[in-house]
Structures are given as C-alpha cells and as structure tokens.
Amino acid sequence: MVAAKNYIAGEWVTDARGPEVRAPGNLDEVLGTVPLTTTAEVEAAVEAAARAQDGWRHLSGVERGNILFRAAAVLEAHVDELGALAAREMGKPIGEARAEAARAVSIFRYYAGEGSRAIGEVIPSANATTLQFTLRVPLGVVGIITPWNFPLAIPAWKMAPALAYGNTVVLKPAEWASLTAARIIELIGPLFPPGVVNLILGKGSVVGEALVRHPAVAGISFTGSGDTGQHIAQVAVERGAKYQLEMGGKNPVIVADDADLDRVVELTVSGAMRSAGQKCTATSRVIATRGIKPRLAEALVERVRQLKQGNPLDPDTYLGPVVSAAQEEKILAMIQKGRDEGARILAGGGRADVGLRGFYIAPTVFDDVDSRMTIAQEEIFGPVVAIQEAADIEDAIRIANGVRYGLSASVFTRDLKTALLFVDRIEAGMVRVNEETAGVELQAPFGGMKASSSHSREQGRAAIEFFTHTKTVAIRP
Ligand code: NAD
C-alpha cells in the first residue's frame, strides 16, 4: 500500500492525509492513500516551478531533449509495472493499460526529438537589410490538469511538450489516477533539475482551483469534463492566462448500406466497449441507414454478448469496471433515462455480476433511439451505445452533427463519394473512415470542434502552438 505524496522542488512532501484508494475492479483491494492537499502546497509547487524556470528555459533545446530521452528510457523499463498499476487503479484492462504505458514512452521520445527541431522561421522583410524571423519561447509555469481515463498517456502528452519547449510544470492528476501519476513522477522527476517537474495531488475543487487561479501560472492545459473546463476557461480569461481545454464527446459511427458488416461490428464494439466506454473518443452512437440497420443491430448484440467482462488484471478481459461509485451511478441513471424516454434495450442494461466486488456495468446496446433523447445527446462515459436509424447518408450526417459535441466521428462505407461527403460535412476534429472513433496517432494533431474543445490542438507538432509564445523579431544592422 502506497501513501502518495506531493513532489515539490525535487522532494516528496505533504502533511495532508487522505482517504484510501480501492481498486474499482476489486473493492477488497486497498491500493494506497492520496492526500487531500491544502492550497499552501499548491503555492509551494508553483513557486518551485517559477524558481526553476529561468535555468530550464536557458538550457538548449537539445539538452532538454536529452533529458526527455532519458525519461522515455526509464518509463520504457517500467511499462509492465505502470500498466498494471493503471489497470488496478482505474480499472482498464491490463492489455490496454500496457499499450498506454508504451504510448507514454513514445510520446516522451517524440518530444525529446522536438528539442532539436526548428523553433521559428525566417520571413522576408520589406527592408533589404532587415533580418526578420519568429522565435518560440516558453510560457513559463504551466499547470497541467488531467482526468483519470488515460492516467499515463494524458499526463505524458501534456508534460512532454511543455518541458521540451522550456516550460516548468505543476501536474494535478485526477483523484482516481493519483497513484499512477505519482509513480510516473517518481520515475522521471529525479532526471530533471529540482522544481522543473512538480506534482500536486488532491481535490480538483481545492488544489486544481488554486493552481488555475495562481497568478504565476502562465498557462493551463486541461483535459476533463465540460463543466470543469468552462469554469477553468472563465478563471483563465479573467486573469489573462493562456488555456487549452479538451473535453467530452458524443462520437458517432455512420454505417452506410454498403459497409463491410464484420469490420463495422468489430470496430464499433471496440470503440464503444473498450475501457468500458470511458474514452473521450468512445463510440456512443451508431447511425445506420435503413438497408443495413436490422442486420447490424443483430450482429452488434451477438458480439457484445460474447465479450468477456471481469477483472482488469486478467489478460483475457475485454472490459472491466467503470472507475468509481459516482461514475457507476451516473451511467446507471443514464441507462434508466434511456428506458424512460422510450429506447429499447437489446443487451445489458444494468450492473454485471463478474464474481468480484467492483463497479461493473454490463455492456449495453439501445435501439430505437431518437435524437431528442438524452442518451442521444449527452455524454454517458460508460459501456453504452445507442443505435439510430437514418434515411440516407445525408440524413445520417445531419443526425451525427445534431449534438453540441464534435470530437471524433467515423463512417463505414465502400463508396469514396460517401466517404468524401462525410469528411467534408462532419463536425468533428477527428474524422475517420472505416476506422473506429477511438484512437489517434501521437504524431498527429488531436482535438475537437464545438463543445468538445477550446479549439487548440494537442499532440504532434501542434503542441508547440499552446506551449509557446511566438516572438516576431526584426533586426536592422
Ligand atoms: P473532471 O472535469 O471531473 O476532472 C478533470 C480534472 O479536473 C481532475 O484532475 C479534477 O481534479 C480537476 N478539477 C475538478 N474541478 C476543478 C476545478 N474547479 N479547478 C481545477 N481543476 C479541477 O473530469 P473527469 O471525470 O476526471 O474526466 C472525464 C471527462 O474527461 C469526460 O467528460 C471525458 O470526455 C473527458 N475527457 C476528454 C478527453 C479529450 O481529450 N477530449 C480525454 C479524456 C477525457
């Protein structure tokens, strides 16, 4: 059992005590404790990051990159351990958790390479003797606030670029992913000069809030729910801080009559049910045209009934528990709402008995779902998918766009014209053809449209836009 602490200026500190963390897949297993930190420690962490800023930003990009390469190597040596810890703490199956740990390694390696790539461009001046160029400089101290559903990859894809471009960071992970975050920092923290990487654990409403409000925090990169994101944006705007938000989704797959049914079923079930549906890019709606819908519904149900649900540490498990009692309650209430509003349950529809004490919800498929229903509009963030019927592809795209979110969307078709129409019209940041809605390569930009995002992009080269300011320099000899 681990008593997690805060990491400030290279030291593990905290006087705060907190409640026990239990494994959501096995509530009889106590994993550790997470402190309920006070705002004084947030203050100390931000001050440490501010003190470390000047030294860190004045290393060369290559020198910073070399430290990130070492961080990637240390993480790589602990992929199995990190995967197992994440699977225990937030309940995603061990195979997915290990893959996520490996992805965190690749993310660090990618941004280590950024240390030796261009940080500006030369722009011709109207004056023949003037040298005009842009230069990227770090923001300063960056606050990083992360959710629990990707406890390894999201901290990595925010911290690695922040550090590569010369920022110092204070990481505030979600309460349900704190032990995993603490282990990441334990592994990589000592590679950096003290104060460059800091960790604060505790409640979002206390320490997250204090981090966002701190005048020395120049930028806030947040991933989480829409309500928290909107609140952070307001605070950031008021005090002129730069902010970046990645939030929820209501991601559709559109299935055309000519789609490859086997492929649709495999990738829709994967998109909807892996991680028990707790991905921001999880498939939440299946919008099928009339010719294929009955066959598709039948095949989806058959496949969902075969899924092995159980202990996330069992390598054969396809889906484990959801993360917490609160999430379980929220998802069950949404399922009830679906019933009350007239949708028809084809599979699942309640808790699952897997022989362990945990937050297990049976993979659930709704049919006869109408766009006005709550389950067609609101993010559920659980193993629930809603089937809707469309008259044709144009109708399907209209239904797909009829929600306030716009993160990820797929179409399944063999027709290039249908694919191109979808690519053109769909209101989503992540647009996929014959692919599942979840998943993005780390070297490509990631982010959503509409209420899913503050419209900046993370990952790949796009990360430089948030984590730096541009200076335009004109030098006249
Ligand atoms: P959440 O908003 O409850 O919490 C996210 C983080 O914000 C946590 O670290 C939390 O402690 C912190 N927080 C809470 N209140 C705060 C406040 N007042 N000030 C500062 N920080 C505060 O979200 P969650 O339940 O952890 O995550 C699930 C949500 O995240 C879902 O809506 C999901 O769609 C979204 N998500 C989005 C993406 C994406 O990239 N778009 C990825 C993963 C998850």
Report on this model:
This protein is of the alpha/beta class. The protein folds into two domains: 2-247 and 453-475, Aldehyde Dehydrogenase, Chain A, domain 1, CATH 3.40.605; 251-441, 3-Layer(aba) Sandwich (Aldehyde Dehydrogenase, Chain A, domain 2). 39% of the residues lie in helices and 21% in strands. It contains 15 helices and 21 strands. The chain has helices at 39-57, 61-76, 79-90, 94-114, 153-164, 178-188, 204-213, 226-239, 261-273, 293-306, 325-340, 374-377, 393-401, 416-425, 463-467; strands at residues 2-3, 6-8, 11-13, 20-23, 26-33, 131-138, 141-145, 168-172, 197-199, 217-223, 242-246, 251-255, 283-289, 344-347, 364-367, 384-390, 405-406, 408-412, 430-433, 449-450, 468-475. The strands form six sheets. A seven-stranded mixed β-sheet has the order 14-15-16-13-12-18-19, sandwiched between helices. The longest helix has 21 residues, at 94-114. The chain starts with a strand and ends with a strand. 54% of the residues are buried. The protein binds nicotinamide-adenine-dinucleotide. Nicotinamide-adenine-dinucleotide (NAD) is lined by residues 145-150, 172-175, 204-205, 208-209, 212, 223-225, 228, 231-232, 246-249, 280, 379, 381, 407, 448, 452.
